[in-house]
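Reading a protein record of the kind used here takes only a little practice. Think of the row as the fold of the chain written in a discrete alphabet. A record is reproduced here so that you can trace the correspondence yourselves:
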Amino acid sequence: MTTIELKKGQQVAPVVKVKRKSRIGKLILQSGMIGWLFILLVWQIASMFSEPMFLPSPYLTLIGAIEIASDGTLFLYMGYSFLRVLAGWTLGLLIAVPFGLLIGTNKFVRALFEPVINFVRFIPPLAFITLFMLWFGIGEQSKVFLIVYATFFVITINTLTGVLSISNDKLLSAKSMGASKFQTLIYVVIPATIPYIFTGAKLAMGSSFMAIVGAEMVAANEGIGFMIWNARLYFKTDWIFVGLVVLGLMGFIMDRIFAYAGRKLLGRYKVV
């Protein structure tokens, strides 16, 4: 291992060790650990000036999580919420992408539906909870379709934006080379739109979690939203915080898995 000699009898630390320390520091910074520690510190300090019923400390929240998880209830509720989100988000994705491609490539269809989309998308999903319960019942259908509604417009608009952002020169080049409308769609439009679809799907995942919490609070006997809503009856504020943390972790993990899969499978389409 080489060292740098400044004066006789004086040496600096090995270059390799300096690089290793800087690399470790960079990894710690990129991992977000400093931000999490800061949030926990602020949370702990704030809880010291409040009653546990109003703001439980991180330690009391951890105790509450262990209490709920000891009989498997927490994991059962997580499973219900996860399956509902996954089903609604996937169904919304399968419906919204073709529809977004259709209105993006067809001016007549776009003229018909774009004003309607820009009107309905401003109505929040929670406003439809009562109607969805009347239409689809109080079972799983109403919750899944509420998530479909929450994801549909986000993905549709992102897909439409992707189609409209394609350079007209690319479309004319494909047409001049004898490509049919279907071939242009498959080999030009869809590949150029994939990054927008991917971004829309990630954003819609957050909308899905917001929708499922509202649905489970109103019409469910299981799920994280139900747990948060039910905790108020017993003044179990620590359970509410457990639900909030669990929702954040579930969404964070799903987002990371989805982003990793996108980079591996769709990297050639500049998905990051």
In short: The two ends are 38 Å apart (CA to CA). Residues 125 and 150 are 6 Å apart (CA to CA).
